[in-house]
Write a structure and sequence with these properties.
Length: 386
């Protein structure tokens, strides 16, 4: 055990979690009971240091970002999730659905920017046929052939297979052929049936989300995974969610990145539920890093927390801050106060100011540009992907 690790174990002893700290230092898997004690201990900074130890073993001082663009192709949705402020009914004011060409137009607007990823997710609009989804992928790929398309949550994939009238395993190769490259992590919420029945009962169940993720990974696609925290779920339900992600990851290895999503209540049917605090967000980040010992990356999605909190997260287990985003709607409809987009140089500066070394990655964590002076000169421009 290094001196730093021994001092950490000593501090953990004072916080009553010495045995948990010893397991982290020994790279042993934490139990759900260990997780419950990490949620309960008042010494958040010991939890942070444990998560930071794991983070630095995996990634050293590096912190990843990407130059990406979000496109939410429709806000029309039939799932009526009570936490969501983004959804609209078809005839409701503000409802929209982009044609594939309109979505491609959004991509063309950014051709002068070094965007490497389009992150494309939306509501579930049952009027959209299978061809719409294929045309959407083809149109975006045609607008920018080298772009990586990370699109369609497990919930959307469930809908696409429904309208295609085919099993998802048969649909995925066709989506890949049309341009799909990987799958984002959204739509998982909290797997608890209790929470689902009270809050998003029309959405696929936790078991279905996990089955779809398994099929996605078996098709050779990488995905991310998420947990929506800070609403009506209990600590035990959060730990069960993390454990189910961890068990699927043991099977498939297909999750690249875990993204904790803190609940934003504004303009939703749950506006009376208080939003999680920055301290809640920091603890959740650390717990994600510590429990998901088999997921390589943990992301502090800067859009949903204040930028300083995202910076702090880089010392609470996170090694990624997401990207430039360009046009964020889901969290800004729900009261997010961050800007809707960031410039590449701002992400680099935020990471440097947090004491980390910025690395621009593509969606699959290939290095596009490194701020590590040993590897690349500071300020070296990123290549433009077209
Ligand atoms: O699926 C919706 C959640 C998700 C609210 O994979 C809300 O890299 C909090 O999944 N308060 C979309 N959460 C965002 C998402 C995501 C974001 C960034 C990166 C990645 C990735 C994925 O946001 C939804 C839902 O789970 N959500 N409304 C709300 N009011």
């Amino acid at each position: 055990m290094s001196g730093r690790e021994a001092r950490l174990v000593e501090r953990a002893r004072a916080a009553g979690i010495e045995d948990v700290a010893r397991r982290v230092v020994a790279s042993e898997r934490l139990s759900l009971e260990d997780g419950a004690r990490l949620y309960a201990t008042p010494d958040l900074f010991v939890v942070a240091e444990l998560a930071n130890l794991v983070r630095e073993r995996l990634h050293g001082d590096l912190a990843y970002f990407n130059v990406n663009q979000h496109i939410n192709y429709t806000n029309i949705c039939n799932k009526l999730c009570r936490f969501c402020a983004f959804q609209r009914l078809p005839n409701q004011e503000g409802a929209y659905c982009m044609t594939p060409q309109e979505a491609a137009g959004k991509v063309r607007e950014q051709l002068d920017q070094p965007v490497t990823e389009v992150h494309m997710v939306a509501g579930i609009y049952p009027k959209l046929g299978y061809d719409y989804y294929l045309d959407l992928l083809r149109a975006v790929k045609a607008a920018r052939p080298r772009i990586h398309i990370k699109a369609f949550t497990m919930v959307e994939l469930h809908e696409i297979a429904r309208v295609a009238k085919k099993p998802l395993a048969e649909v995925l190769p066709e989506l890949i052929e049309a341009g799909l490259d990987s799958i984002p992590g959204g739509g998982a919420e909290v797997f608890s049936e209790r929470v689902r029945s009270e809050t998003y009962h029309l959405k696929i169940s936790g078991d279905e989300w996990l089955d779809i993720a398994r099929t996605v990974h078996e098709a050779g696609l990488r995905s991310n995974c998420t947990m929506l925290h800070g609403h009506i779920e209990t600590v035990a339900e959060r730990l069960d969610h993390l454990d189910r992600l961890r068990r699927l990851q043991d099977e498939t290895g297909g999750f690249q990145t875990y993204v904790p999503l803190s609940f934003h209540p504004d303009n939703s049917e749950m506006a009376d539920v208080p939003a999680p605090t920055a301290l809640d967000e920091l603890r959740e980040m650390a717990l994600g890093r510590l429990m998901l010992d088999n997921v390589p990356h943990v992301k502090a999605y800067w859009i949903l927390m204040d930028v300083p909190v995202a910076q702090l997260c880089l010392s609470f287990g996170a090694d990624d801050v997401d990207g430039t985003v360009v046009e964020e709607k889901v969290y800004h409809e729900a009261g997010a106060t961050t800007p809707q987009e960031a410039q590449r140089h701002e992400l680099v500066q935020w990471i440097r100011d947090a004491g980390r070394v910025p690395v621009e990655r593509d969606t699959l964590y290939n290095v596009v540009w490194s701020g590590d002076e040993a590897l690349a000169p500071v300020g070296m421009p990123a290549p433009v992907a077209t």
